[in-house]
């Protein structure tokens, strides 16, 4: 699948549920209305859709959400999709998780061929963890990380950089993550969906974070790539890798290889644009995949060049109205 700008689309992210057991303040309002369960694609339908993408050239699948591991019987889908790893059709099957259910599922994930996962963690302070996630249990997440490591799964930590919240903590998070053999990636907060607070209060440009870290650590740009949008540096003092995901300070769209599927079968060709394609109707219209395949081709033909996120005091409204939990982070 090649889009109008010559980019090969080889990476599908699937939000398997919009529900989450956390309420991170920059992601959701505390009082969220979720989709009625009857609107969700079944696990079998998610499998069929993902498989159609694999047959059309997708090499990497990431299940996300909401919290992917709270979707009922999610391991059934992961187990089933792992057949594409065994056949060699897929290079990587992975998840992005808040870690709350990892202790339960780590061994089975490893058994399904999941080799690396992303765990979201914005602070190492249990009180601040409660403050930012509203509902999260820090000890459970730590136990989940340990369980995944014990099962042989590599972990990359993702932390959203938040002004006045974790900026002072980034050096110690970096040292801890690298000491535990984990990469750390920092993410700029993106204007997605209405939240309870004001995003301008939270926004921290990673260019400033990098400048601050450079006073203490030796950061060297490296060409390391994981198929996602992060740009990496090596940190000489720790020997580990630090990634930067900078949708605001450095638009990363030129190398975008991704599309995103929601749990209702809507395909978003860009995280930061409203345009979408409904794949549920062609999926359900026939047992064969011809209609679906045509609908996917048509959607890829509309993939936009990129997004233009802005966070400032004049731009009060989010760039897109849907939350990250809908499109899948
Ligand atoms: N529940 C899973 C998790 O916590 O990783 C997967 C879904 S979550 C939406 C995926 C990632 O998106 C998390 O790392 C989260 O911190 C990040 N995220 C959510 N809203 C965001 C926003 N407005 N800007 C930047 N990152 C955001």
UniProtKB/TrEMBL annotation:
[4Fe-4S] cluster 2 binds at residues 253, 256, 270. Keywords: 4Fe-4S, GTP-binding, Iron, Iron-sulfur, Lyase, Metal-binding, Molybdenum cofactor biosynthesis, Nucleotide-binding, S-adenosyl-L-methionine. It catalyses: GTP + AH2 + S-adenosyl-L-methionine = (8S)-3',8-cyclo-7,8-dihydroguanosine 5'-triphosphate + 5'-deoxyadenosine + L-methionine + A + H(+). Residues 4-230 form the Radical SAM core domain. GTP binds at residues 13, 62, 96, 156, 258-260. Its EC number is 4.1.99.22. Its cofactor is [4Fe-4S] cluster. [4Fe-4S] cluster 1 binds at residues 20, 24, 27. PANTHER family: MOLYBDENUM COFACTOR BIOSYNTHESIS PROTEIN 1 (PTHR22960:SF0), MOLYBDOPTERIN COFACTOR SYNTHESIS PROTEIN A (PTHR22960). NCBIfam families: moaA. Belongs to the radical SAM superfamily. MoaA family. This is GTP 3',8-cyclase.
């Amino acid at each position: 699948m090649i889009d109008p700008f010559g980019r090969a689309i080889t990476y599908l992210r699937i939000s398997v549920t919009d529900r989450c057991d956390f309420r991170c303040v920059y992601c959701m309002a505390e009082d969220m209305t979720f989709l009625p369960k009857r609107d969700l694609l079944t696990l079998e339908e998610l499998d069929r859709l993902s498989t159609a993408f694999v047959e059309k050239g997708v090499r990497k699948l990431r299940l996300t959400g909401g919290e992917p591991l709270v979707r009922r019987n999610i391991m059934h889908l992961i187990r089933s999709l792992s057949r594409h790893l065994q056949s060699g059709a897929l290079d990587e099957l992975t998840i992005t998780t808040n870690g709350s259910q990892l202790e339960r599922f780590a061994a089975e994930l490893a058994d399904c061929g999941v080799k690396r996962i992303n765990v979201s963690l914005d602070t190492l302070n249990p009180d601040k963890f409660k403050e930012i996630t509203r509902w999260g249990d820090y000890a459970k997440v730590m136990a989940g990380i340990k369980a995944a490591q014990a099962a042989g799964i590599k972990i990359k930590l993702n932390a959203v950089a938040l002004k006045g919240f974790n900026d002072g903590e980034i050096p110690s998070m970096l040292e801890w993550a690298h000491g535990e053999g984990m990469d750390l990636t920092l993410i700029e907060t993106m204007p997605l969906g209405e939240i309870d607070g004001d995003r301008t209060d939270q926004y921290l440009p990673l260019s400033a974070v990098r400048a601050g870290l450079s006073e203490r650590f030796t950061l060297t740009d490296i060409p390391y790539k994981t198929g996602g949008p992060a740009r990496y540096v090596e940190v000489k003092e720790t020997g580990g890798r630090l990634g930067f995901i900078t949708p605001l300070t450095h638009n990363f769209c030129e190398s975008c290889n991704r599309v995103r599927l929601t749990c209702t079968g809507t395909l978003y060709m860009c995280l930061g644009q409203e345009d979408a394609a409904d794949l549920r109707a062609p999926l359900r219209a026939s047992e064969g995949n011809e209609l679906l395949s045509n609908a996917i081709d048509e959607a890829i033909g509309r993939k936009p060049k990129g997004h233009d996120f802005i966070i400032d005091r004049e731009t009060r409204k989010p760039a897109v109205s849907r939350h990250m939990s809908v499109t899948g982070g």
